[in-house]
Specification:
The chain has 2 helices and no strands. By secondary structure, the protein is an all-alpha fold.
């Protein structure tokens, strides 16, 4: 797997995870008959929480893999 393929795969995983976390609060708010403004606020909070979570998990993963200090394995 090339570096470009790995980076593209990582980006897709991050975006998918962000979307999963971002749509959860509005879906929960729908169960409580939220107004459109409340749904928009829930979406904003979900995006913010998702971005923070993706950032945190990225930093955590860097600790386990050694981050950019670790030489990449070539195949």
């Amino acid at each position: 797997m090339s570096d470009a393929e790995r980076d593209a795969g990582n980006r897709k995983i991050k975006v998918g995870f962000l979307l999963l976390v971002a749509v959860s609060p509005p879906l929960i708010a729908l169960q409580w008959n939220a107004t459109p403004l409340e749904l928009l606020a829930a979406l904003g909070v979900g995006i913010l929480l998702g971005a923070l979570l993706v950032w945190y998990l990225g930093r955590l993963a860097d600790e386990f893999t050694g981050g950019s200090r670790r030489p990449r394995r070539r195949r």
